[in-house]
Predict the 3D structure of the following.
Amino acid sequence: MILQALTEYYNQLLSKGKVPEPGWCTANVSFALSINDEGELINILSLKQEVERGKKKVIVSRKIKVPEQVKKASGVAANFLCENSSYLLGIDDKGKAERALQCFEACKARHKEILTGVDNGAATAVINFFNKWIPEKAQKHPILEEWLEEVISGANIIFSYKGEYVQDIPEVKDAWRKAAKENDNAHVMRCLVSGERAPIARLHPSIKGIKGAQSVGASLVSYNAPAYESYGKVQSFNAPVSEVAASAYTSALNYMLSSTDYKRFIGDTTVLYWAEDGEEVYQEMTNVMLWGDAENQISGEDLSGIVEKMAKGEAADLAGIPVNPDNRFYMLGIAPNAARLSVRFFWQDSFGKFVENIESHYRRLEIIKPEYEKYAKLPLWRLLQETVNPNSKDKAASPLMGGAVLRSILNNVPYPMALLNNTMIRLRAEKRVSYGKASIIKAYWSMSGRKENKEVLQVMLNEESTNVPYVLGRTFAVLEEVQEKANDSKAKSRVSNKTPEEVQEKANTGIKSTIKDRYFNSAASTPSTIFPILHKLANSHLRKIGRDRERVRIYYSQLLGELSDKITMSETPIPKRMGLEDQGIFILGYYHQTQKRYEKKDKEEK
C-alpha cells in the first residue's frame, strides 16, 4: 500500500513537471567538464551556487536532471554522463590508484557502448575524450590543476559541449532511453505495485535525506540474507517491484526529502506527508495545523474558514486552489536502521478526516493559557518538548513515544501511557505546572479517564465543582499564594512585563523552601497526610500578613473556608492515596486556580 501510494504521487508530480520522467533522476552536481570536438578538456565549469540556509549563506551543488544512477555496493558500477572523478578522470583523493583506473575503464566501456553510432557531435566528443584521456597524467593537466582538490573530493561531474549539457542533447537522450530498455538481464515477474508483468528491479534506487541514515542513501526494500530468500528468490525478487515502479516510488520519496517544507522530524523519525492529487496546499495546511509553522503564508482567518467548511463536508478554496475534503491524504514515518530504512508508521485517510482528528486533538488540549504563550494552539513539537528535561543536552523526545502520540492524533484514539508517564516525571522533578503539561494531562484524561471527572476536565476554572482531588489542587494553589503574600507584600500578579513564574520567583525571594518545593508531590499523592500540615502552616502565614492588610487576610481565610466546605459537601473524605488520574485532576485544579490569579480585571473589579 505504501509503494502504491508513492507511485501514484510520483505520477501526479510527473504530470506537473516536478520530477524527471522514468529513467532519469535529479543529482547534486558540482562541476562540468567542457570538451571540444576532439574530446580535449578545454575548461572546468563550477556549477555550485550560493543559497540561504536559515540566517547563513552557503555554497552548495546544483540539482540537475541526469540519467538514472545505478545503486553502488562494493563493486565497480559506472553511471552514464554523471559520475565522480574516479570514473570520469581515473583519479581520486583516497590513494587507491588501481581501483580508480578500474572505475575509469568501466566508465569508458559504458559510454562507448551507449554512444557509439549516435549521429551527434557531442556523442563523438565524449567517446574521443575517453579514448584520449590518460589518468596517469591527469593531475598535471593544466586545466585540471586549478580545480584538482575540489574535483577529486567525490563531487558529481557531468560533460558540457558547446555550452550545453551533454545529457540534455536530444540524440543522446534517445540513446540513453534505448539503452535503458535493452536490459538483457532483466528478470520478468508480476509487479506487486502495478500488478503487471514487467522487468523486476534487482536493486532499488537509493533514498537520500532520511535523518540518521547513510548520506549516500539507503533502501526501503531489499534482502541480503538466506533467511529471506524464499524459494531461491534472492535480493529484491522476493518482493518483486518493477524497475518503473521502483524508480517512481523512490523519486517521489527523494522529491519530498529534498525539500525542508514538507518533512518534519520526531526524534529519529522523518515524517513525510502528501495529498493524492499532488497539490502542495494540503501540505501547507498541515504545516500550520500540526506543526505550528508560524512562517507559513496561510492566515489564521483563511485556515479557520477552511476547517469550518470541511467540518460540514464541503470543499473549500485557498488562493484559487480547491481544497477537497475527500482527497486522500498520507503520512509516513521512516527511521534509519543500519543500511536499510524501517517504517515507523503509515497513515492514510481523507483530508477531511485528517482535519477533523487534528481539531479533536486541539479541543482536548484546550485550556486557559498564560498571556505570554504565543501559540494559539499547542503544536506537536511543543507538546513533545514538555516530556524532555530542559537541562539535558539532548532535547529530543523519545522517538517511539513521539511516533505513538502522532498515531493517536491521526487515528483519534487514546494517547499512549508513555506520554502521561513522561509528563508526570518531568512535573514531579520540576514542580512546575506549565501550560503545556496541564494541556497534556487534560487531553490524556479527557480521552481515557472516568466520566465523573468530565466536569473538571474543562478549559477554565470550575468554581462549583466538589470533586475532591480538584478542590485539593485549588486549595494548594491558594495556600501557596498565602505564603507568597506573607513573605513579600510587594509581589503583585499585575506585573505586566513578567511571566507568572517570574512574579512567583520574586515573591519567594528569601524563602529557603516553599510549600511547593517541599510538599507539592506528596500533596498530590498522599493528601490526607500532608494537608493538615499545610493548613497549620497557612495559619502562621495568615498571621504574618498583619493587621495593616486585614482585608487581604480575611479574603484568603474565607476562600480557604469555602474550599474546605466543598470537600465537606462532597461527602468524600480526603483520600490517603491518589492514583494517577486523581493526581492529574489535582494538578488541573492547581493550574486552573493559579491562572485565575493572573486574569485581567476590568476597571470596576479593580
Notes: The chain has 21 helices and 16 strands. The longest strand covers residues 24-35.
